[in-house]
Amino acid sequence: MGSLPSRYRHRFATNSQEHLVLSDEAAENDMYTAVALCNIPPDRNSEDTIYIGERLNIISEEGDMLRVSSTSTGIESFVLRNCVSKVYNRWLFEGITRRNAEELLMLPQNHTGSFLIRKSQTCPGSYSLSIRQNGGHRCNIKHYRILQLHNGWFCIHPTHPFSTLNQLVDYYSRTANGILCRLTEPCLFSDMNTTPEAISSPIVIQRPNLNWREVTRSMIQRQPKRTHEESLVSEGLRETVNAYIYFTEESCSED
């Protein structure tokens, strides 16, 4: 099982301290993106607010502060490091808690099978797989511990070890086999560029100023077009009513 090919481009390896690190190629090219873990500022009253789940570019890092820019608005801000997570391979989220994982997966753009992987808070050296499943009007977030074995391999169940997290993700993308559901897509970021489609003006249906009890045959009979005043009965309606009256009269005469 551990030799399954991976669909993902960048591979991971383990160092002597049993920490997950990027491959040399990915590390050299800083192959990661970043995502906001909360609304910044939290009051959400500012025009330059960064929203939870929004994709960010990290411009610089100075201690506990990061200088970031929104990929959708281009606005730059200084934020605390713990308000942002670096994301590798689209699904490995750095420095997030169980609660952060649930809040991100609960965003409306995610669905059944959306997932992410994070370092375990309760078991150092291990990781956690968080998966979303929709059910009716509710959605469920389930967490699974990914154990890192002495040989550096990873497993959720001891009978299915994998040499890399990529292979683990690839396997559970094909089959649920003991977990909540099959993995479908990494946790999606909010696309703040998406603007609501222009909503066309509703069709206005005007109630006719016509009382059918007051309709007379003279009103229905064909008349020349008025130049300054519109007829209360349209041409098509006039033809229809004429036909109705004709057939009604014929039917009455037969009785």
TrEMBL record:
Pfam families: SH2. Signal peptide: none annotated. Residues 91-187 form the SH2 domain. InterPro entries: Grb2-like, SH2, SH2_dom_sf. Keywords: SH2 domain. This is Src-like-adapter 2.
